[in-house]
Amino acid sequence: MRFGVLGPLRVLEGERDLTPGPAKHRALLTALLLRPGRPLTVDRLIAEVWGDRPPTSADAVLRVYVSALRKVVDGIRTVPGGYLLDVDPDLVDAHRFERLVTAGRRTRDAGRTAEAADDLRAALALWRGPALDGIDSGELRRAHAVPLEELRLTAIEECVALDLTLGRGAEVVGEMRALVTAHPLRERAWGQLMLALDQAGRRSEALSAYQEARRLLVDELGLEPGTELREAHERVLAGGSPARAVPNETPPDVADFTGRERVLDWIRRSVPPAGTAPVHLVLHGPAGSGKSAVAIHAATALDFPDGRLYASLRARTPGAMLEDLLRSLGCPEGAVPADLAERIRLYRSMVSGRRLLVVLDDAADEAQVRSLLPTGPGCMTLVTSRSPLAGLEAARAFELDVFDPGESVAMLSRVVGERRVRAEPRAAMRIAVLCGGLPLALRIAGSRLARRPSWTLEHLAGRLEDERGRLDELSTGDLTVRSSLALGYRALSDRERLLLRRLSALSTPGFAPWAASAVLGAPADPLLEALTEAGLLQAHGLDPSGQERYGWHDLTRLYAAERLTAEEGPPARVLAAASREILDRTRRARALLLPSEPGSGQTLARTAEQAIALETTQLRESARWLAAERGFLVATVADFQRSGLDEAAWRLAFYLTPFLDLGAHREDWRQTVELGLRSARRTGHRHGEALLLRSLADLHRVEGRLTEAAEALRLALPLAEASEVARIRHRLGLVHLAQGRSPEAEACFVACLTAFSAAGDQRGRADAMRALGRVRRAEDLLVRSLETYRELGDPRGEAAVSLDLAGLHLDQRRPSEARRRAEHGLGLVRRLGDRLPEAEGLVVLAGVAMAEGRPDAARGAAEQALGTFREHADRRGAAQALLTLAAAFLDLDEIDKAVDAVTRAMGEFSVLGDRQGLARAEDLAGEARRRRGLRV
């Protein structure tokens, strides 16, 4: 049986309409349907059925009405003092509408725009007319019809906002016309109508709509338009309504680009008109044929209103590339889904309403490209690859050939200068012929001439003749690139060649001088400058830590790798020699992030003064260095693992864990820990496997996958060395605590405290006392933990316990002490630059503000924290912030906002399986419903 109140009352059983006929019966049933499962007193029902003038026999008549309704509707029960209707709320369209609106908002907040719009459309489709249409009850209309109608209008506006984000303005113009006609004083609706008309190309109508809205507001209310409507007007006047940033990521066009008119004309003619099916083009040909240069040159000349994306694929996975593309499209840092299928869905949703050009450079195969293709109407993809990618559905391919002699000489003129080429035309033609028409070879040859003005073209042509055995191969496959790169390589000194070869052992596309020195075994800075001048490396400027960073074309690296194998042997020898420096630097940076690591055998005692000094100098420098080197170090874990350097691989993966955790770099965390685990297992290093399983469990825990976290820790326990067993049990206790299993968590923490104390592990004791203090709500344990962290010089540990103590003081109704602790902890994490711990501190501070009777301040702190948690995809933190935000809204008497916040919190706690959090949210939701009932 299904029930409808969003329109005339409807009771359906299958196709049968069982709607009661008498008006009072309908009013009584509606009152029960609007609050399913809730007892309603006889007095309340009499007031809602008859208003303020009930008959003298109302009690008896009500019983007759109930008896009549029971013949039609199952589930009407008599309870002390009244009645209730025992029915699933989702069978009542009003409650299903509210649930779908909440789901749509949650989906919108997760960044799934198209899916959120669909949810809201499904909710709005439930309406058949005005709420409670035909129900003769002023009480019910005031208490329920009015809020439902307001929620419907708000949902329409929210849905239209999503449609506008997706570029569907033309589709919603009619809907918005109807809305402003029915509600002419809703400024947001007028603004959305203007933006929809603008998107539909009807700019003059959009401007007219503004004038009409302004006239109505002035005539009816005596008010000028508000901020939102004025901003919409300004956007239309400016020539559009940009709701999002337009990315423009294609690299700069090369200054010496020459020829290629046939392929450029093919690309231009392939651009799809707006609203038509997307087009995917593949440029393929041998290495060095200029595929990337053609794609970039073409892209810079094409006009796509929603921007240009660029991705250099190399050997990167589709998941990693999707993460970069999603961020380019505006997905917040850390909010990218972990699951590949979810990333693909989010990517397709975010591009569905945009007309984009996407350049995918250097694709290895079809599988690497398929999930990155934009599916929106009017989009275009340019893919470069050595292969035609024949298996790529609906793609068209163009094979790039070498330059003819005239194009080759023209390109040489662009690089060297027309004056020099005109002076030696025969030598220029000889160079063009000897380079085999390959753009890369021509560019290298021309660059050498440009950097050596004393050389004649005849001199270079003679040098090329001397290398006839290599240059003859320029026209055959990969040997073309090899021969071209050999020109630059042979011009280097012995030390420069040695460095270039050894750098090829690293797969990373970018590196700092210290890494070059590590592979060389000596200072490399002067050699890097020489290689940059020779055009074989590129200087990319200073990174966040102040280091110069260098990169190179992947083809240059491949050629250098061949020379390394031929002249020195496999890259494993170079990596092995460099591994000590790489591991030492990373371990030192880790030690600053995580002082006195348990089980390390190193307890670094620092005074409070030393700790403060570290906060402002070495700690920040360490964090900046790790941020700058993240890509390099993650790639190096893979290099070590691929070369069989298993101990280096698993140790580097383990050292990176706290940094990747603090920065919420979960894709890199997952990749490195999985590679490290493989290496630890391959080499049979049980302790290394245990450490990496512990890291994997931490990753699962922060992602809310508590069952997987517990399983990883159970696998680690029998593998761990004695010093590590307590650390793993401590993690297991944290998982139990997150699962709401406090007795099991407490047992773990007690055992850990005993083990750490026996081993003299001060950091372990501090961690165990902190965890046990949280479970038992024991101030003495937390204070002892705090003192130990201070003795160890660990400001992060000190900050965390300070916030724990603040929460405990709040529970004990000691707000002034809670504020002192919270502000101290928050100050520490802000000086350290730790965003997520700062958000946790803001939630605590919001709780303090609530205890002090300052709900406005609490709301501000909770909203700021919620933004950070969402940015880092921290669902547990977001749930806590929403709960605090709901409490603040209640104190501010903003009941609807409180209900919305607590509903979203309940959704997060349910997904996380957090029963304690869900219970707190349900209690708060009950209070919110009670207050809404009182207000009515």
UniProtKB/TrEMBL annotation:
<keyword id="KW-0238">DNA-binding</keyword>
<dbReference type="Pfam" id="PF03704">
    <property type="entry name" value="BTAD"/>
</dbReference>
<dbReference type="InterPro" id="IPR003593">
    <property type="entry name" value="AAA+_ATPase"/>
</dbReference>
<dbReference type="InterPro" id="IPR016032">
    <property type="entry name" value="Sig_transdc_resp-reg_C-effctor"/>
</dbReference>
<dbReference type="InterPro" id="IPR005158">
    <property type="entry name" value="BTAD"/>
</dbReference>
<comment type="similarity">
    <text>Belongs to the AfsR/DnrI/RedD regulatory family.</text>
</comment>
<protein>
    <submittedName>
        <fullName>DNA-binding SARP family transcriptional activator</fullName>
    </submittedName>
</protein>
<feature type="DNA-binding region" description="OmpR/PhoB-type">
    <location>
        <begin position="1"/>
        <end position="87"/>
    </location>
</feature>
<feature type="domain" description="OmpR/PhoB-type">
    <location>
        <begin position="1"/>
        <end position="87"/>
    </location>
</feature>
<dbReference type="InterPro" id="IPR001867">
    <property type="entry name" value="OmpR/PhoB-type_DNA-bd"/>
</dbReference>
<keyword id="KW-0805">Transcription regulation</keyword>
<keyword id="KW-0804">Transcription</keyword>
<dbReference type="InterPro" id="IPR019734">
    <property type="entry name" value="TPR_rpt"/>
</dbReference>
<dbReference type="InterPro" id="IPR011990">
    <property type="entry name" value="TPR-like_helical_dom_sf"/>
</dbReference>
<dbReference type="InterPro" id="IPR036388">
    <property type="entry name" value="WH-like_DNA-bd_sf"/>
</dbReference>
<dbReference type="InterPro" id="IPR027417">
    <property type="entry name" value="P-loop_NTPase"/>
</dbReference>
<dbReference type="InterPro" id="IPR051677">
    <property type="entry name" value="AfsR-DnrI-RedD_regulator"/>
</dbReference>
<dbReference type="GO" id="GO:0003677">
    <property type="term" value="F:DNA binding"/>
</dbReference>
<dbReference type="Pfam" id="PF00486">
    <property type="entry name" value="Trans_reg_C"/>
</dbReference>
